[in-house]
Amino acid sequence: MSNRGPSYGLSREVQQKIEQKYDPELETRLVDWIVSQLNGGSSASEVERPSPGKQSFQEWLMDGTVLCRLINSLYPPETPPVRRVPRPKAAFGQMEAISLFLAAAETYGVNRVDIFQTVDLWEGKDMAAVQRTLMALGSEAVTKDDGYYHGNRDWFRRKTKGNRRSFTEEQLRQGRSYIGQQMGGHRGATQSGMTGYGTPRQIL
């Protein structure tokens, strides 16, 4: 269900470019994951799948209920980030539920630049951005590998973890000493044989 009027002129061109980024194949993967995640990895069909297509995908998510359940499923049952999953029917309540999901997703580890805006989903302005957020969330869940992810792990890219190293004060001190030796020293050096600046060299 679209909640915006038709686009005209330049705004229509911009909207068409945004819609071209939407990936139907990615939609299928995300639906498969969300259903599997909310069913706890079982084949029981507790969550109803939406019909294929961007508009159905939007309608499935736009009240925020599925999204809040999704983020809660990535946490221990006793510590869900969204304490009470709303089932709002009014527009304000639905947008508030989406905002709760977005805040929880960022806390979970999704980078802020990968977070969509509430209107991107509720008004269907940029469903490609919604896909990006969900892909980032899935990638974060696979990377955490804490036992709460359900689904095919090949659906998402595992994030690389930085190889952080720590050194003792003694190791750092030895390293500074070694670097100083590499740069050379001036012990035993003299100015013997050197001429002053501007003095012609004498060739014997």
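(ticket continues) Second input and output from the same batch:
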Amino acid sequence: MLETQVVKKRPAPPKARSKKRRQDDESGSRKRRKPTAYEEDEEYLDLDAGVNKKIALVDNLLLADHLAKKIRRFGTELKPVELSQLDISPNYITDTTSFQEIRTLENLPNFLEKFADPKKLGEAPKQNGSPHTLIVTGAGLRAADLVRSVRKYQTKNNTIAKLFAKHIKLEESVQFLEKHRTGIAVGTPVRLSDLVDKSALKLDKLERLVVDASHIDQKKRGVMDMKETMLPLARWLARHEFKERYADPEKGLQLLFY
């Protein structure tokens, strides 16, 4: 009986990969998704301190560009001419990068005293409701914290004004300004604008606008990171009373981002 001879076939050699495919495979593991602008800024966000440290590092040119981008991001319903009217020139913004301390509530007085006469911060113009310094922030609770941080400047003739909607009616703020001398006022954009429109908050003696720009909440959002706060802020900063004075050599108005 003949033994059946079994011929085993050799397995076919694997197909050679093209050079392009080999390069793609080799580089594939090294490819990374390009981080978004938000993710690139993560390293600057200090949640423990509640501060976006990047604000302290950018000069007036970069800040003006940052504002313009935020305005266009949130102002999609606005016409081009309306968007341009909200833009702030770099020449309007005071460069504050020389202030090296972390921008917390505790260091706000030091910041103010670096860019203003410390003695005058404790004084108030004789006309009621006519502050020399306005600090603007995004929410009432934050405004209350800011008021406490500058309480050291309050005297018998210089009351720190709380100008925000949280538990304070508009008419109450009007009456307060009519009856009190105030050197420093803290408020939110919409309430401040309403008080100016009612002629209760007077801007004749105003020397500086301070934007609470570095503060972030637990969701890592600051006043310029939300549509509901950024657009009112932009409209406030772009009021014609301010734009006429930002670069005026005689009646200059400081625009400071803290």
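Agent notes: The two ends are 101 Å apart (CA to CA). The chain has eleven helices and seven strands. Closing as not reproducible unless the customer responds.
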